Each structure stands twice: as structure tokens, then as C-alpha cells.
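hey so u asked for the seq, here:
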Amino acid sequence: MPNNISVTVLTKNSQKYLSRCLHALQPFPEVVVLDNGSTDDTLTIAVSFPNVRVKTSPFIGFGPLKNLAASYTTNPWVLSVDSDEVLTEALVQELLTLELQDTQKVYSVERDNYYAEKLIKGCGWGNDVVPRLYNKLRTGFSDLQVHEYIITEGLEVLKLKHRINHFPYDSASQLVQKMDKYTSLFAEEKRFRKKSSPGLSIGKWAFSLFRNYVLQRGFMFGYEGMLISFTNANATYYKYMKLYEQNKQFNISLVVVANSSPTELTTALQNLSTRYIANVIVVGSASSGTKAPQVPVTYLPKAKGVLYQALAACTGEYVIVAELQHLQNALLLAHKQNAWHNCFVADKHQNSVSFWRNDLTAVPSSSQPLQPAASTIKEVARQLQAQGLELKQIQK
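ran it, C-alpha cells below
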């Protein structure tokens, strides 16, 4: 029955095809349009349809946005439609006559993809089958920023007979603009979760071009096939180059446990390479006469819980804690090069440890009272391991 299905549509400056999209969805009693910042006539078009409810949200990633849109629906079965997609009448009738009794089922549909109204069946645009109808009480979208998908693990996926018409691009400019946006989201999402390099980027670009233009028959679709094939290849190149840069660039807070003389502290700080260091906190010294070059230094005297107080004062997203007598630029570089998602880094004797600031859950914010805390680097390492983080060991 049609009242078992609610439709969700994400929009941002989607006026070109939105009217056609929503017109095809009129047989459905509820359509939720979730807009994230349109400045064109998108919202005016949306509210002109009586079965449409409009919600707004900032951009939080495509997966989270689609789950948010589903949360606004009143029916358990949700059909996710893009604003540049137009359902055929045959597909609408097929959907409205489905017997939606089994929540273990997810329904997929095949898309016909058009470039400026020209049907393209090559360049990876053919055989495009996407899950779209699901029961929100049983599953939902992944939380990925881009390339989100309906989670189908343990569920049965059934393909519907009829198709969706998809109009993603009308010009080379649109291809390039979306490529830039999606490659940036990919790099942010995969940061410190996936490795990259300039050589890998070039290799993937070359294979992508060969696959799209030759293996997937882009050459059979005129200049459009060439344009799409080269854009797909360039997108592959830029997403891995952006990831390479993202994996190199992050701010570090350095916590120095000073058990040595003030002279040694002065020498160590003056020799410090501070290119990626946001701030330095020295624990166990009341001296304030020494500054690392162009980096703020905070001095904390020895006291119970002072190490965690130092961690709370860190401003960098990544934290390195090291004993003064082991503090060398080579050690800091080793920690930086081994930084990785869901991991912490320590040397063999745990005279130094590093981790993502948000991974140490017991560290208080500057506005919260301090919790009972460890007082040594080894105790910090034990807590990180107890939280399920993987240890990456380095040699001093």
C-alpha cells in the first residue's frame, strides 16, 4: 500500500530537476525534502507540492543527512531518491504494489544515467544498481561523508523490475565542481585510515582512465564518453593526492616530562623542530625562562594528576608525550610518521607515547574538573590499550 512508504530527497541548489523529481513522486503521500543551504528556487519548488514536507540542516555528510531525513518520516519503509532522479511511472506502480511485510528485505533499482539528456551506458555509468527502499526500523545508511550506502549485511536484497532516470551532469563545469567536492570529502573521510602517495595517485589515474574509456566502452559515447572518462580518472588522482596531503598535515601538542636539569631543558627546547607543533607543555619544571622557537610553552610543576592536566591543556589534534632525556627530533618524526586511526604509538620502553587527542577518553576538557589520573607515561599507554586502541611500536 502506498501509505507504507515515505520518500526522502536531499537538496542543495537542486532547482533544475527537482520539479520533475517531485512530480513523479506525487502518488506517495509523504515526501520529506531535507535541504542543506539552497540559494536558488529549490525550496520554492519543494513547498509547491502538497505531499512534501521541507526540513533543513547544515551539511553533516551524505550518510548522516540521509539518516536524518529518514528520522523525519512517519512510515517505517523509506524510499531514498536523489534530487536529480526521476522515477518512471512503471517503477512508481511497482513500488506502490509491493507487499512490504518482511523487514529483512531491501529493494534495489537500476538507474539509467544521462549526461545533458544523453543516455550513457559506458564509463562506469552502465549496470548501475543501487539499494533504495528499506525499513528504517531494521537498517539505514552508513555514516560515511561520501559514497554512503544502505547497510544490507544480513538482509536480502531484491532488485525491482523497473528503472530510475538519473540526470547527474549537464556540463563539464558541473563534473569538475562535483569532482572537487567529492574528492575532498573522500580525503577527509579516509584520513589516517588509508595510505596514499604521489606514485599511487598517478598509477590509479592511469588505470582508471583505461578502465573507463576502454574496458567500460567510454570511447563508444562520443565526446561525452571521453569527458566522463577523463573526469573519473582525474577524480581518482585528486582524491588520492588530497588524501596524501591530509595524512601529512596535522597539528601536534608536545608534552615534555622534565626529569633533568634546566640546562638540558633549555637545550632540548631550543633544538626542537616546531613546524607541526601547536604548543608545548613542560611537566615537572617551574622554570618559564625558556621558549621553543615560535611555539607557546606552558610550565606545570610536579603534582598529583599533573600529567592529565597537561593533556587537557593540549591544543593540537595529536599529542606526543616524551621524557626529556629521550626528546629528539628523530623521535618526534617517528611518532608523526606512525600516526594512524584507532592506534597509539609508543617506543619499546614506553618513554614516549603518542595518540589522537580525542582517543584518550579520561582526559578532561579545560572546563571540567580533573578526574583521578595516571602520573606516568606508562600508565597513559596502559589506558590507551585498555580502550581498545592498537599499539604501534617504534624504535628509539
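Residues 222-248 form the longest helix (27 residues). The chain is about 35% helix and 25% strand.
lmk if thats what u needed
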